[in-house]
Amino acid sequence: xxxxxxxxxxxxxxxxxxxxxxxxxxxxFMTRLMGGESSVGAHQGLQRQLLPVYEHLESAxxxxxxxxxxxxxxxxALERAASLRHDLAALERLGYADATPILPATQRYVDDLVAxxxxxxxxxxxxxxxxxxxxxGGQIIATLMRRHYDAPDDVLTFYRFDIAKPKTYKDAYRxxxxxxxxxxxxxxxxxxxxGRAFALNAAVFDALDACYPAGANARTExx
Length: 223
Description:
globular, 0% strand, single chain, 65% helix, 9 helices, mainly alpha
């Protein structure tokens, strides 16, 4: 009789979210922003939508910080809400004045985080999706914002982590994921939440696409 072992949680998360990850990163809003066809103002609009997502994620994680199913992943060096507030204030000082409200797609993302605030397993999925993405693709975004738009470092602190070796850190994060004492049901909940997080993120990109359509400059440039 052959026994098939379940993959480690980190590998299961990677495999489960691969298609959703590709779908999210190829949305029109992001491809234009990363291709130099948008503006710093559009990036400001993105940051404005991300702020409540991180505020609610970090608040939910803080309330569960003593739960052994989640605590090994929590690290103040990962938290991004304060950096987002800093960057948005810096952009305003430079004359950018994006007035995009919190979009319905963003509110749905926040609502999902609120709904799972008491579930460490679902918070794991959200935590993995956001922070490993920031440590990976986020670094590319910062580079391209400088290259295409001359964005100053003071408005890109969201992408700057107090982590000396991101690759080593990410490997250690995945190892901690694999050591979490989760039931099979909790692992499934983490996988579902990670897939949902990518889908919710893609929906925010699509909503921003309508605010900053192709062929038009972002509506808020420096004054």
